[in-house]
DNA sequence: GTAGGGTTAG
């Protein structure tokens, strides 16, 4: 057992070590933790410079949570400590917390560096306006700007300024700023402003001419100046210009090479990039971390997986150990390479071997899990993460939404705002997808309104998500208006809009839009054909479906996969063309899977084709024994022809297999609509209130005759479950409730987590005809619009 | 204690 003195001595020894190590060194964090721990254990109160040093290590190793704990223990943190923490917050994207520290700092504790840190934070996080606002405040508070201030403010200006004229004004302002002789660092920043304004995305290419003029007139050019010019030309799609500047450099250093390589990569000249990569080495110019990072990420994004692996091997062979901490970003790029090629486990190996990781590393793996659909692993990995930034949350929100966890996605979206993160356009995209999954139309509308307010509504991915959301929530007009208002659309937008029309039963319109897409020169993909075939299914367009199915391969070289075949089977079966359905199943290159058999079984039920239906069901019992839909369809098929003993057998089999029956439901009233959600938990408070109405509604329903007579309700379950009939089919109850309580003409909407059953489908059709009201139902698979006894999805789903 | 060029997570 050591005594306090020993502990203090050890602590002091660590402290001395800590002074020597670089804050970026991976070992420094654990060292700092050890020192800190010893100090706490010994009751030793570190002060002043030493505390700041500890704080710096925590911050620079991206451990901002520890940093904050330490900061809060400092009795009166000075400007240095505050600056350090603000910088760490802005590096992790949490400006709000940084600004809190800033605002809580009295004027007498502030200095120029302190202001600079906050301005830089804003500018790094793309918030140019706040940076400029702070710059004004700084001058109002009488602090003198220095070179750091000017360079940061200039880079912030790029974010809010779009044209060359404004660049020119800035140029004059900088020259006039009283500094007489403008320092070369400020001139470099100015050059960078011109160059960024000149990028094709940001309007003016004549800004490049001005940039060139400034460049030619600069009294002193350093490596940074040259590299800025090279990237300027690259961004302006002028590879020759870039090359010319590069060639005219007397001494070409690494960064310039990297800029050229990156230029080639961005213009798809991958071979050129690799040639330069090799040439560097042959001329004796060291590849550095950035070179490797660029080349590997190029391979990852350009689909050159094999070359990427070769570079990896090359690093392992020639370049020491990639586990060295300097190669953090290289390892990060490697992770992306493996994730993009669906080898998350390989990426995870790289991750596990890394001595130092940062937020990028963690986010890369997280998105790897998410993109591979491995949502459970993504969830637990997310929980493990101590440090999260905007991107972490965004990835997780989209991941949850895309994998059916809409409620969790929306919850996280709300939480991120409470935690001080301002959601970006991608985060909104995820949240809208979550609404889409949940059928949460009102929530989606609110988000849409916020997006318009923020100016994000013209963003491509946001627009695409909105189209799907409105379509899946049954508001086709809104989906259409989003599509039409988008300044740019891509294949995903077309696919989403074609799907929207198809979902609503407008098969012909969907095909028209598809033709228009082709006329616009957009090349379809497998999803496009899937949506077109689905549209044909919903509208019963058999000949058209066959046409597009063959067109897909013949004209576009896309081989049909499982889902395409399933659509075709569906299409034929609905039309009663069973020999065609069987025929197409026989031509499949691989063994048919569950989607194909499901389509066959559903079709057999419509036409009471028992023999074929049983065959399909047997296949399904082998492939997906836990899937409830098979049992329900099969028993319904028997019920339709009055074979009640077989119904009971199927139900018993289902119970023996431990397959859950449909869950109960809950409902909410929103304005003039009734929304119904099915939940797994029948003690859900909303379900309880449904039960409260049950008796009354039962009477009413009988009296009004809205629900077809008993066969439809009762044949779906075993005798002993009859008393629960209404709760397992409670969407009918809810609709009846809606029809009674809502004003005439209001639409009734029903949302369900599972597929609605055939009986409810029939009931809805019946109700829509008898009471002359439109009923909108959405389940996990489809959208149904009932009107005058017909449904948009055809005879059956 | 704070940047400015080349790079890594959607």
UniProtKB/TrEMBL annotation:
It holds the Pfam family PPR_2. GO terms for biological process: RNA modification. Residues 705-797 form the DYW domain. InterPro entries: DYW_dom, E_motif, PPR_At4g14850-like_plant, PPR_rpt, TPR-like_helical_dom_sf. PPR repeats lie at residues 111-145, 222-252, 253-287, 288-322, 358-392, 490-524, 525-560. Keywords: Repeat. Belongs to the PPR family. PCMP-H subfamily. This is Pentatricopeptide repeat-containing protein At1g25360-like isoform X1. It comes from Cucurbita maxima (Pumpkin). The gene is LOC111492473.
């Amino acid at each position: 057992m050591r005594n306090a003195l020993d502990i203090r001595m050890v602590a002091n020894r660590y402290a001395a070590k800590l002074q020597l190590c670089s804050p970026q060194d991976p070992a420094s964090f654990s060292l700092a933790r050890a020192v800190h721990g010893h100090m706490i254990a010994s009751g030793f109160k570190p002060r002043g410079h030493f505390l700041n040093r500890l704080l710096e290590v925590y911050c620079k190793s991206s451990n901002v949570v520890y940093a904050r704990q330490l900061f809060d223990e400092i009795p009166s943190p000075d400007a240095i400590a505050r600056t350090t923490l603000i910088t760490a917050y802005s590096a992790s994207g949490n400006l709000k917390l940084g600004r809190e520290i800033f605002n809580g700092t009295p004027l007498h504790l502030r200095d120029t560096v302190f202001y600079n840190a906050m301005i830089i934070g804003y500018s790094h996080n793309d918030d140019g306006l706040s940076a400029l606002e702070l710059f004004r405040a700084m001058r109002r508070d009488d602090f003198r700007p220095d070179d750091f201030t000017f360079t940061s403010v200039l880079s912030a200006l790029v974010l809010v300024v779009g044209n060359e004229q404004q660049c020119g004004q800035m140029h004059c302002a900088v020259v006039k700023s009283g500094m007489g002789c403008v320092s070369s660092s400020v001139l470099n920043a100015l050059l960078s402003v011109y160059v960024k304004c000149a990028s094709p995305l940001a309007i003016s290419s004549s800004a490049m001419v001005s940039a060139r003029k400034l460049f030619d007139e600069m009294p002193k050019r350093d490596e940074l100046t040259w590299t800025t010019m090279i990237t300027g030309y690259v961004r302006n799609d002028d590879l020759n210009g870039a090359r010319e500047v590069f060639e005219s450099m007397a001494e070409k250093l690494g960064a310039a090479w990297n800029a050229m390589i990156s230029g080639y990569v961005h213009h798809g000249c991958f071979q050129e990039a690799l040639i330069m990569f090799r040439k560097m080495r042959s001329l004796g110019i060291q590849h550095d971390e950035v070179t490797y990072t660029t080349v590997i990420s190029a391979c990852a994004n350009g689909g050159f997986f094999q070359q990427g692996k070769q570079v990896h091997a090359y690093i392992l062979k020639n370049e020491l150990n990639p586990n060295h901490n300097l190669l953090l970003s290289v390892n990060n790029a490697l992770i992306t390479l493996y994730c993009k090629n669906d080898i998350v486990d390989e990426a995870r190996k790289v991750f596990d071997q890394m001595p130092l990781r940062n937020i990028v590393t963690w986010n890369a793996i997280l998105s790897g899990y998410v993109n591979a659909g491995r949502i459970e692993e993504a969830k637990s990995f997310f929980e493990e993460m101590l440090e999260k930034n905007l991107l972490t949350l965004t990835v997780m929100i989209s991941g949850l939404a895309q994998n059916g966890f809409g409620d969790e996605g929306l919850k996280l979206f709300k939480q991120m705002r409470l935690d001080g993160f301002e959601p970006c356009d991608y985060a909104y995209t995820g949240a809208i997808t979550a609404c889409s999954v949940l059928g949460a139309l009102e929530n989606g509308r609110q988000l849409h309104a916020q997006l318009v307010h923020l100016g994000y509504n013209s963003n491509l991915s946001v627009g695409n998500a909105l189209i799907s959301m409105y379509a899946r929530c049954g508001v086709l007009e809104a989906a259409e208006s989003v599509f039409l208002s988008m300044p740019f659309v891509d294949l995903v937008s077309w696919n989403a809009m074609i799907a929207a029309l198809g979902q609503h039963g407008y098969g012909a319109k969907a095909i028209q839009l598809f033709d228009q897409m082709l006329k616009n020169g957009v090349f379809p993909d497998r999803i496009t054909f899937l949506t077109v075939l689905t549209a044909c299914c919903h509208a019963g367009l058999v000949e058209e479906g066959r046409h597009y199915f063959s067109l897909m391969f013949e004209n576009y070289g896309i081989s049909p996969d499982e889902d395409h075949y399933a659509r075709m089977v569906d299409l034929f079966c609905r039309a009663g063309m069973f020999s065609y359905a069987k025929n197409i199943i026989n031509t499949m290159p691989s063994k048919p899977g569950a989607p194909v058999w499901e389509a066959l079984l559903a079709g057999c039920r419509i036409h009471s084709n028992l023999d074929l239906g049983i065959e399909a069901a047997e296949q399904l019992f082998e492939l997906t024994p836990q899937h409830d839909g098979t049992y329900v369809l099969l028993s319904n098929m028997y019920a339709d022809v009055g074979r009640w003993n077989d119904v009971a057998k199927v139900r018993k089999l289902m119970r023996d297999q431990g397959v859950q029956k449909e869950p109960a439901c809950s409902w909410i009233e929103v304005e003039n609509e009734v929304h119904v959600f099915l939940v797994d938990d029948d003690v859900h408070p909303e379900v309880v209130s449904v039960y409260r109405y049950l008796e009354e509604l039962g009477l009413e329903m009988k009296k009004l005759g809205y629900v077809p007579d008993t066969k439809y309700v009762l044949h779906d379950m075993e005798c002993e479950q009859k008393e629960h009939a209404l709760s397992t089919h409670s969407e009918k109850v809810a609709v009846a409730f809606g029809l009674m309580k809502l004003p005439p003409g209001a639409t009734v909407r029903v949302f369900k987590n599972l597929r609605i059953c055939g009986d409810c489908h029939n009931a809805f059709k019946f109700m829509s005809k008898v009471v002359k009201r439109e009923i909108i139902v959405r389940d996990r698979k489809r959208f149904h619009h009932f009107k005058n006894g017909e449904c948009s999805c055809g005879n059956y789903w």
